[in-house]
Write a structure and sequence with these properties.
303 residues; mainly alpha; 0% strand; globular
């Protein structure tokens, strides 16, 4: 006779852990947020990431109430793991920011005096032709196109379907030089990212690549791709615990100034008969509201 066994929790698949109705929706950043104001949406997410890390730093002692005992080294290692894991997520949101900015400008390009469809497509093709594969032609994914049947913006959170579909079919969003060329296709003479922005972003993209694809080790081939990383070949990527704070502050400056450059170029080419309501929507779209930063939290051990 077999002993009676207590039934455990029912077996669940990964998808069963998906929270369909989170009580913390106000903290989440959605496609609706990115469609309305890409810069504001990304900066909101970066601040939430910063606050999450700071919360752990400042409240790790409270874990003892849950009978979780951290030694000093354990706490430091846990914080390092959290900080490292945030960078790929932040850079993923950064791609979403870039694509929605491109998509929104594409949708609003009907209000630009000098926008030329043929020139626009040709410049996108020229920018894409620098890829190691392909001949520069823009191939649209027909299967993805079918997914937009009976498209209803109010239910999807998307406000720029055609522009976003085009952006999704363009490669190279991890390359700030290529991204600059995509935005120049609208007829803007100014660069979206300046030289210093490109330098900073190349470092972030390479670090993100190494965390995601090589287990957090900066391999010799990867270290040679960015000049400032060449002396770090073979190193395991570990950040100081104030890294996300520094990231959020620096990326705010990059997004604020780059968005301003695009906004200026856009409104300088705007037709004269745009309604005040439409103009207001455009200004909100280009917004990148930052916050006033306090002193940088010093690197410290978690205790």
């Amino acid at each position: 006779m077999t002993a009676n066994r207590k039934k455990g929790k029912p077996k669940k698949d990964f998808i069963d852990y998906f929270k369909h109705d989170s009580k913390r929706k106000a903290k989440h950043v959605t496609f609706t947020d990115y469609s309305t104001s890409p810069g504001n949406a990304f900066l909101k997410y970066s601040r939430e990431a910063k606050d999450a890390v700071e919360y752990f730093r400042n409240n790790v002692k409270k874990l003892k109430k849950h009978k979780i005992k951290f030694k000093q080294d354990d706490a430091d290692a846990s914080l390092e793991l959290i900080v490292i894991s945030f960078l790929p997520s932040l850079m993923g949101h950064f791609v979403t920011y870039q694509k929605h900015l491109f998509a929104g400008i594409f949708e609003m390009s009907i209000f630009l005096k000098s926008f030329d469809e043929k020139s626009f497509i040709k410049m996108l093709q020229d920018a894409k032709s620098s890829e190691s594969t392909g001949n520069g032609s823009i191939k649209l994914d027909a299967i993805s196109l079918c997914s937009y049947r009976n498209f209803q913006p109010e239910h999807s959170g998307l406000k720029s379907f055609v522009g976003l579909y085009l952006a999704d079919n363009l490669p190279g969003w991890h390359d700030p030089i290529k991204v600059n060329n995509y935005f120049k296709a609208f007829g803007f003479s100014t660069d979206f990212f300046n030289n210093e922005d490109c330098k900073e972003l190349k470092v972030l993209w390479q670090l993100r690549h190494s965390i995601v694809h090589t287990g957090g080790t900066l391999t010799r081939p990867d270290s040679q791709k960015v000049s400032t990383l060449r002396n770090l070949s073979g190193k395991t990527i570990v950040f100081e615990d104030n890294f996300i704070w520094i990231f959020a502050r620096k990326i705010q400056q990059i997004i604020h100034t780059s968005s301003q450059r695009l906004e200026t170029a856009f409104f300088n080419d705007l037709v004269s008969n745009v309604s005040s309501e439409e103009t207001k929507r455009m200004k909100i779209f280009f917004e990148a509201k930052g916050i006033t930063w306090n002193n940088n939290p010093k690197k410290k051990k978690v205790s």
